[in-house]
Design goal:
This protein is an alpha+beta fold. It has a single domain, classed as YugN-like (TATA-Binding Protein), CATH 3.30.310. The longest helix is centred in the C-terminal third of the chain and has 18 residues.
Length: about 130
């Protein structure tokens, strides 16, 4: 995980405004939320794992299933995860175990982040700042 400093951190905004602005920049707001907090995600890379720029937020007025909710933006960060290539070393045999443990362990769940993704993320955060702080 690599934090990205931003002027939007601790800013308050209506969820629907943030969602509309960030979706127009390529962010998704899907399964990464609960009723009191969530994330806007921007996929940067998914070649041998994934690298996301993630902007966390929390509800300060209302719940996230309602569009008029006011949210507070957290500190953006890069999140990287590198998939294991080949067979899983810690696989459990059996049909019951296989039903629950369908995915191999990550090779590096907190993978190092290439400088190019950090630079790209900083540019995207600047666009987010310009869009949300109009």
């Amino acid at each position: 995980m690599k934090p990205i400093k931003s002027k939007i951190e601790n800013e308050y905004i209506a969820l629907n405004e943030a969602e509309d602005a960030l979706k127009s920049l390529g962010f998704s707001y899907g399964g990464n939320w609960d009723y009191d907090h969530g994330y806007f995600d921007y996929k940067l890379d998914d070649e041998v794992g994934y690298t996301f720029l993630r902007i966390p937020f929390k509800a300060v007025e209302g719940e996230l299933d309602k569009r008029n909710t006011v949210i507070q933006i957290g500190e953006p960060f890069l999140l990287a995860h590198k998939y294991q290539i080949g067979l899983d070393d810690n696989v459990g045999a059996g049909s019951v175990s296989g039903s629950f443990n369908q995915f191999s362990e990550p090779q590096d769940p907190d993978a190092s982040i290439d400088k190019k993704w950090i630079d790209i993320a900083k540019e995207i955060v600047q666009k987010v700042e310009a869009e949300l702080m109009k």
